[in-house]
Specification:
This protein has 331 residues and is α+β, with helices and mostly antiparallel strands. The protein has two domains: 118 residues, Phosphorylase Kinase, domain 1 (2-Layer Sandwich); 206 residues, Alpha-Beta Complex (Aminoglycoside 3'-phosphotransferase, Chain: A, domain 2). The protein has eleven helices and twelve strands.
Length: 331
């Protein structure tokens, strides 16, 4: 077997597999006669470890995604691969854009970690190809991103919170629980989490505003350019694949990551809202957006810490402070 791995330090969050481990996964999936010709680790992702696997008796390559060891996972990010697996039936509206799950093993009996084998999507990662198109054509890309997001948001669910549970009867319960969980993870890293607890308290004090949201909608979690594949040779950037839907949950569409990213700049990305219209800009909607932004910033603080981006961690504190001030001004 040819193994092409990304070199990482021993204490890096993402940890690769040995050739023997990859072969064991292949045999669990395809039988004892499976032969791995090559395994190439793919970059771009920052959570799971991912490989392109070429097999001796299979024409098409497959993708092996491996979750972090359980002890390395934050409580607010626990078992994301299992969450993605549970989300697949609910993501039926975009099934034609997603890889097919060929096998999944959550027993941790083979390599001590959850793993999933999926079909290999054609196309080129959007971060590699989008910049080659004239800016004026980017509106088509972001409009399609809005269409994909809107089709996911159209799916109503059984509860608020993670798709795989635990579920909550009210949106306020899911939001407050999520903020506290992120705060506890931040504190476990030796970082100050007081601002996130304050945000949770502010949300708890105004549950009636959060609970104006009564229908749990499917949220993509973190869909954006890095999670998409573009068709090669298309006259305008055209999404042909969507990857890594492992942070889905049930809630208010305004709390979804692509909504936040589409508003981040006043540029071509605003075409997103032509396909995924924003709700009326009421005081309640604006207040909830500040709560959601704190949640995003808390999750980003964890990610930046995990990646060793200490400047980014520091920058998150004044950003959260500004959101807390806005929350207080709406009371």
């Amino acid at each position: 077997m040819e193994l092409h791995a990304i070199e990482r330090s021993a204490d890096a969050f993402q940890q690769g597999l040995t050739g023997r481990q990859i072969q064991a996964v292949a045999e669990r999936t395809f039988g004892p006669g499976a032969e791995v010709r090559s395994a190439t680790e793919l970059g771009g992702g920052m959570y799971n470890t991912t490989y392109r696997i070429d097999l001796a008796r299979r024409a098409e390559p497959v993708v092996l995604r491996v979750a972090p060891e359980p002890t390395r996972q934050f409580h607010s990010e626990r078992e994301l691969m299992r969450a993605e697996y549970a989300s697949v039936p609910w993501l039926a509206p975009i099934a034609d854009l997603m890889p097919h799950v060929l096998a999944a093993d959550f027993t941790q009996s083979v390599i001590g970690r959850d793993w999933m084998i999926q079909s290999f999507l054609p196309g080129t990662p959007a971060p590699e190809l989008l910049g080659s198109y004239p800016k004026v054509t980017h509106t088509a890309f972001f409009r399609q991103m809005g269409e994909i997001t809107a089709s996911v948001h159209a799916v109503a669910g059984p509860w608020f919170g993670p798709v795989g549970g635990p579920g909550h009867a009210r949106w306020s319960e899911a939001v407050v629980a999520s903020l506290h969980l992120i705060a506890e993870d931040v504190a476990s890293c030796g970082l100050d989490a007081a601002d996130l607890h304050k945000a949770a308290d502010a949300a708890q004090a105004c549950v009636h505003v959060l609970d104006e949201v009564t229908v749990p909608r499917l949220l993509t979690g973190d869909l954006w350019t890095v999670n998409t594949m573009l068709a090669e040779g298309a006259p305008v950037p055209t999404i042909c694949g969507v990857l890594d839907m492992d942070r889905t949950w049930w809630g208010d569409p305004e709390a979804d990551w692509p909504i936040r990213m589409a508003r981040a700049k006043q540029d071509e990305r605003l075409s997103f809202f032509q396909a995924c219209p924003a709700p009326a800009d009421t005081e309640s909607v604006r207040w909830r957006r500040h709560v959601y932004e704190v949640r995003h910033l808390g999750a980003l603080r964890l990610e930046r810490h995990r990646l060793g981006n200490q400047a980014g961690v520091r920058d998150s504190y004044p950003a959260v402070a500004a959101e807390l001030s806005a929350l207080a001004s709406y009371r």
